[in-house]
Amino acid sequence: MKVDVKLSPLAAEARTHLDATVIVVDVLRASTTIITALANGARNVVPVLTPDEAATLKLRYDSANVLLGGERGGVKIQGFDLGNSPLEYTEETVSGKTIVFTSTNGTEAIRKTTSAQTVLIGAYLNLEAVARFAVELGKDVIIMCAGNQGSFALEDAACAGAFCMAISRLTSVEESDSARAARMIASSFDTVIDTFHASAHGRNLVNLGFSEDLEYCARFNTTDVIPEYYNGHLIIRQKKSH
Ligand code: MLT
């Protein structure tokens, strides 16, 4: 099995995804938030590119069952129900709801993958479950880092490296140079929190008052929920149907 890491979405050519399993990683915080929303019973999450697109889409749903979520500059968008803190996406708030969601980098990275056969959302929270499932699918794996406005983001590269390690513990892999580099980044920090504090986005979130989010995003394997991007929606991948 080949494992490649796209260190930023700009490095990802849509045509290379066709027959691969793509794992989108925006560990601070979009992918962690999406996993949390679905784990807490959200019906689905609809990733959109802009706040305007989100507001327009909301009108198509029964307003009692839809919430607008997301951020710009790390903070809740005016008029939205929720920001991008995973801690806001409690069972009480999201159970049974459709979340129309937009974030600066995460949703764009997800939308870039539409040509891929299987698109999964990964973070530390579901690392083992996603790695195991990707291995079960038996296709080559591309780990797509959301990055930061088209550029490299340290925290996503390190999380991608952790995925490379988890996958290589389960099967024999042929890693690209970027996969090896991601692995080296992951292993050069003692803890995930250290990685977050070393990253520009992690420091920015701390300055915005989101230190607790960093602690939450650093938790390993708290859920088996695997979000899959399917027909424009993120839903929980049902393993049995495969
Ligand atoms: C993003 O999509 O850029 C991030 O999730 C931003 C954030 O942490 O709010």
Structure overview:
The chain is of the alpha/beta class and 242 residues long. It has a single domain (2-233), classed as putative 2-phosphosulfolactate phosphatase, CATH 3.90.1560. Helix content is 37%, strand content 20%. It contains 10 helices and 11 strands. The strands form 3 sheets. A 5-stranded parallel β-sheet has the order 7-2-8-1-9. It has a 4-stranded mixed β-sheet with strand order 3-6-4-5, with helices on both faces. Helix 5 crosses helix 6 (154-170) and helix 6 runs antiparallel to helix 8. The longest helix has 17 residues, at 154-170. Bound molecules: D-malate. D-malate (MLT) binds at residues 26, 28-30, 71, 74, 84, 103-106, 146.
First-to-last CA distance: 19 Å
The backbone outline, from C-alpha atoms, is globular
Rg is 16 Å
Query: And the CATH topology?
Result: putative 2-phosphosulfolactate phosphatase
CATH architecture annotation:
Alpha-Beta Complex
Please provide the count of β strands: 11
Q: Helix content range of the residues, please? A: 25-40%
Q: What is the makeup of the main sheet? A: 5 strands, parallel
Task: Provide the CATH superfamily.
Answer: ComB-like
Helical run tally? 10
Alpha-beta content class: alpha/beta
Uncertain segments of ≥5 residues (pLDDT<50)?
none
Identify the strand order in the major beta sheet: 7-2-8-1-9
- CATH first level: which class? Alpha Beta
